[in-house]
Specification:
alpha/beta, Rossmann fold, three-stranded antiparallel β-sheet
Length: 445
């Protein structure tokens, strides 16, 4: 019984290993076509060698070599048997050689507990994934990108360049570059190695003359902009360094500033304020925002990405300072209207102090329509989990009767358990892909 148990255990390990290896032949890996090409090449090579050997065999008069060739060619067997024997041995050697080569090449890319074939399969699926364009800025857009990259590699993030606060604002004022902060966040979110390299990219200096408050990524992008002579090229090169999936593009290359009309709380006076950071710190209610200059043109690759998209996601993010600065760029909303893509608005989970105090979903929609005209959204994705402590002065953004009556709204749990005022990236991405599949069909056959 003991020996039988050992035999069973050995056989199970063998069959499990064989099963794992045969998963390389699953559909969608792009592996079988190259295997077939290799086999055909080997057959042609063998056929060429056989022609030479056969010619030599028929014409040689060497009494010593002739019987040796007869034995090596198994002439004493019927031809179909010889074909099966030689073909079987050759095919087995080809498979074994390819298997060994694959293991040697893919070994550095294997992750613990995850076979290489699975990594290849997932990569291939994502490489054929839908074309997603995400428009916004700040941490909201980075959260969305971090989740959606699990479903597709064809992602284009379109980012606002109106930021004038913090490290980005200082670099903008001192060196005249476009603000890199929101772009840096998106690059890190799309990175193939968020755990290490992107953390370095996000590192913020806590002290040091001229360095305090700056993030390494902002300085890196700024340095590349001076080296390459182009901000957009600097962003592209930064993406290559971080091995990102997709692209990050500015909405415009114009040096735009955000201008807002704000009704002050203490005096009820309406003031005209220039500068994103000053608008949100004015202690009032924002009535409207616009760009200066107002004729800033959309970056052409940004327009092209929108026109070629399958799905356009707007938000989450600060309504007045992340979302609208993109949509106010000349030509961008027109491109969205002309695109055949599904257009989803991702509603914020919670209100934002100084921007959307007391807002619900319909308030957000009203502000967007006030600034860009007729509704451009096919669907609004909204949170319906209101558990958690948001802190003083922050409320849940709830779907209300007006939004349910006037718009198509999809409600689901989107809340991050640790930080309930934020979206959970995995929940959000899953909800987006699920509802997109419901509307258009499955992503993969």
């Amino acid at each position: 019984m003991h020996d039988n148990g050992k035999k069973t255990s050995w056989w199970k390990r063998f069959t499990d290993k064989l099963n794992r290896e045969f998963r390389w032949f699953l559909p969608g890996l792009g592996y079988k076509r190259w295997l077939a090409l290799t086999v055909i090449g080997a057959m042609l090579l063998g056929l060429g060698l056989a022609v030479i050997v056969l010619q030599y065999y028929r014409t040689t008069t060497n009494e010593f070599l002739t019987p040796i060739l007869a034995v090596l060619s198994l002439r004493f067997l019927d031809r179909p048997i010889r074909f099966l024997l030689f073909g079987g041995i050759g095919f087995t050697l080809i498979l074994f050689g390819i298997w060994g080569a694959n293991r040697a090449v893919l070994k550095p890319f294997e992750r613990e507990g995850r076979p290489a074939w699975e990594a290849v399969q997932q990569y291939r699926r994502k490489d054929r994934g839908i074309k997603v364009v995400a428009i916004g800025g700040g941490h909201g857009l980075a959260t969305l990108l971090s989740g959606i990259k699990a479903y597709t590699h064809n992602i284009t993030a379109i980012v606002t360049v109106s930021d004038d606060g913090g490290s980005s604002g200082e670099l903008r004022r001192d060196l005249g570059v476009l603000p890199p902060g929101d772009i840096r966040n998106c690059l890190s979110a799309l990175s193939n190695d968020e755990a290490l390299l992107s953390q370095v990219f996000q590192y913020r200096f806590k002290s040091g003359a001229g360095l305090e408050g700056h993030s390494l990524g902002n300085l890196f992008i700024t340095a590349l902009a001076e080296i390459t002579g182009s901000f957009e090229e600097a962003v592209a090169e930064s993406g290559r360094v971080l091995a990102i999936y997709g692209k990050v593009l500015p909405s415009t290359l114009s040096n735009v500033q955000l201008v807002g009309d704000v009704r002050l709380h203490d005096s009820d006076e309406i003031v005209h304020i220039k500068g994103e950071s000053k608008i949100t710190g004015a202690n009032g209610r924002i009535l409207r925002v616009l760009l200066d200059p107002s004729n800033a043109q959309a970056y052409p690759p940004t327009v092209a990405a929108i026109l070629n998209a399958d799905l356009i996601l707007i938000g989450p993010g600060s309504l007045y300072t992340s979302i609208l600065p993109n949509l106010l760029v000349s030509g961008l909303v027109d491109a969205i209207r002309s695109s055949r893509a599904e257009v989803f608005l991702v509603s914020n989970v919670a209100t934002q102090r100084g921007e959307t105090d007391g807002f619900n979903v319909s308030d957000h929609m009203h502000v967007l329509e006030q600034h860009i005209g007729k509704n451009i959204f096919d669907l609004v994705i909204s949170n319906n989990n209101f558990k958690g402590d948001l802190g003083e002065g922050v409320d849940w953004v709830r779907n209300d009767a007006t939004s349910r009556r006037s718009y198509k709204v999809y409600e689901t749990d989107l809340v991050d358990g640790l930080y309930p005022w934020r979206h959970d990236s995995k929940k959000l991405a899953k909800a987006i892909i699920s509802v997109f599949e419901e509307r258009t069909g499955p992503l993969f056959d």
